[in-house]
Amino acid sequence: MESVTSFIEGELQLTINQEKSRICGATSATFLGFNIQNLMGK
Fold it and tell me: In 1-42, where do the E strands start and end?
């Protein structure tokens, strides 16, 4: 996560909130009230 943080803060000039940031799979993450579901097995 440190290399991604340094790229975002250094190259893109954006600030990252470390309290809200985490590493997880795409299906377990919620973004703006939405989440991605894997329906391939249904």
Answer: 30-31, 34-35
Q: Where are the domains of the chain?
A: 2-35
* pLDDT tens profile 1-42: 788 889 999 999 999 888 888 887 777 788 788 888 777 766
3-state DSSP helix/strand/coil percent for the chain, to nearest 5?
30, 10, 60
CA 25 to chain centre: 9
Contact 34/27 with Cβ under 8 angstroms? no
